[in-house]
Write a structure and sequence with these properties.
EC number: 5.3.1.30
Protein name: 5-deoxy-glucuronate isomerase
Organism: Streptomyces fungicidicus
Number of helices: 0
Strand content: over 45%
Structural class: mainly beta
Helix content: under 10%
Oligomer: single chain
Shape: globular
Mean pLDDT: 94
Distance between the termini: 36 Å
Keywords: Isomerase
């Protein structure tokens, strides 16, 4: 059984939702994050959920099931028309990439799921207001990263160089049974132009069985983030700073995680520094 008092960087379903919240899990300012937000939304058949984007841009990503996403300007925004996107979605996160919807800041978003659905709402504080759009599943770049028992699949649906956002970076990673991913350990907590980006990060995990995976965050500075956690289906880990990796999939079960990143830097870049013990980087 999981412990009853998890580390503050390790979030369990239901533990961070306010009373009456529609979200199964929330990570954001209440957990000390400054740039990123993640909500996990579960809708019963025919249910609708509406939220204001405020000063953040958002991606609505189906985890299971699909639905309709409507985006309309909020308040005094001019020149925008209401947009509506049908998301086909997928049976589950292990089934492959999915289509998704992008909603800009200063808008209202309505999500409806006719046959039930589970959605990740990934957000980042931003400055520019970009148009609402749908990202088709066939256009999601899929990267095979690493080799041997460190091989994994990265679905770069909103990576820094694949889908236009102002600040938000988001990818999915599928790790085969028994493999290590987010490896070698690396960090992105300093602004060093062209070498390293300052990005906080959220990991949200899915597993197809009760056996836990493991995730490590190690300090990169005195008093920095430090966590070794058993992670189970539906849980999240926050990485405000520090070396992170590996994420270890249990034998016999693949491991999925969603990464959500953003930071204060002047550009939307993903530059990482590998731990000095693993300076060779990805093999």
């Amino acid at each position: 059984m999981p412990p009853t008092d998890p580390h503050p960087l390790h979030l369990r379903p239901g533990a961070t939702a306010h009373p009456g919240s529609p979200y199964r899990l929330s990570a954001g300012p209440d957990q000390g994050l400054r740039h990123t937000v993640l909500h996990i939304l579960e809708l019963a058949p025919g249910d609708t959920h509406t939220f204001a984007t405020g000063g953040a841009e958002w991606i609505v990503l189906p985890l299971s099931g699909g639905g309709t996403v409507r985006v309309r300007p909020d308040g005094g925004q001019q020149g925008d028309e209401e947009s509506e996107f049908t998301l086909d979605g997928r049976p589950d996160v292990f089934a492959g990439p999915t289509d998704f919807a992008y909603a800009p800041r200063d808008a209202r978003v309505e999500i409806t799921s006719g046959a039930a659905g589970r959605f990740a709402l990934a957000g980042a504080r931003c400055g520019r207001r970009l148009p609402a759009r749908r990202g088709p599943a066939p256009e999601v770049p899929v990267e095979e990263r690493g080799s041997g028992t460190c091989a994994r699949q990265v679905r770069n649906f909103a990576a820094a160089d694949t889908f236009a956002c102002d600040r938000l970076i988001a990818v999915e990673v599928l790790t085969p049974p028994g493999h290590w991913s987010s490896y070698p350990p690396h960090k992105h907590d300093e602004h060093r132009p062209g070498e390293e980006s300052e990005l906080e990060e959220i990991y949200w995990f899915a597993l197809d069985g009760p056996t836990p995976a493991f995730h490590r965050v190690a300090p990169s500075r005195p008093g920095g983030a430090d966590l070794l956690a058993e992670v189970r289906d539906g849980e999240a880990v926050l990485v405000p700073d520090g070396w992170h990796g590996p994420s270890v999939a249990p034998p016999g079960h693949p491991l999925y995680y969603l990464n959500v990143m953003a930071g204060p830097g002047p550009g939307r870049d993903w530059h990482i520094t590998f731990h000095p013990d693993h300076a060779e980087g990805y093999r």
